[in-house]
Amino acid sequence: MALEYLGVTADEEAVYRALMSRPGAHLLELADAIALPPGRVRIAVDGLVERGLAVPGESHRFAVTPPDLALAAQLAEQRDRLNEAELALAELVGTYRSSALGSSERELIEVVEGPDAVGRRFLQLQHSARERIDIFVTGRPQVVSDDNTEEAAALARGIRARAVIDRDFLVEPDAVRNVEQSLGAGVDVRTTGQIPLKLIVVDSRFAMLPVAGRGTGVDPSLVLRGGPAQLAQGLFDAVWANSRPFGTTNEALDADDGRIMQLLLAGFTDAAIATQLETSPRTVQRRISALMARAEVTSRVQLGWHAREHGWG
């Protein structure tokens, strides 16, 4: 029986289901319907009434409380208990894993395991920012997406946010649209060919990165403090310094031409650019040809040089 995980017995669930199809049924009718002795049905009904799943009427007749009202609260309580158990387990695992480290080392490095725990710690780091958040964005979003990030709230508090994105991220669906939304919110964005790994650094005080480095997963992740966090900041600053600004096209280009130049300079093929802009490769080729004519160049390499010199991408 499915409801046993909410503490409902097999007899209680059988009676509850019978009552759903027989509103106001008599105790003896229920016993006949589910082939149980009246004594067991009486005990089951009393249990349902106590849980708020059934309502007694006159002459030993009963009706059910709608399941979305009666069971939703119990299900939410059960989820809360599971979340508490998950947090307790994560704490025990952290204690076990750090038992071999000295106290000073434990203050510098923390292991966070489980997708939910990794996502929560990412949000906590964003909340803790006082001045700046720096992020490497690569590949497909995993535990953090546009739906569960505190980026907007941090920017509203006056926090400066910088992001370096790479080609692996830009090929994801809606990547360009998401980047443009971040730019509009005030994030400074730069692009590069390939980023070493996913990373967030907060005020040079905290950093978080996956244990597997540039592997596909972010679970488990490391939270760094002190000197290790400052090393992560140095890595970000070095990559930032050698990356290209995104979204700073010259006003002489319209929005679509600006996007095309940014993606072209990032190394995208015509087909990949067309996918991001939701248009056809032929349209992309035609617009690139028009840009070449406008720049008075005869090759895409020359177009790239012209774009860099004139702020086209």
From TrEMBL:
Query: Could you tell me the superkingdom of the organism this chain comes from?
Result: Bacteria
Q: Which SMART domains match?
A: HTH_LUXR
Q: Which Gene3D superfamilies match?
A: Winged helix-like DNA-binding domain superfamily/Winged helix DNA-binding domain
Where would I find the HTH luxR-type domain in this sequence? 250-307
- What is the official name of this protein in its record? LuxR C-terminal-related transcriptional regulator
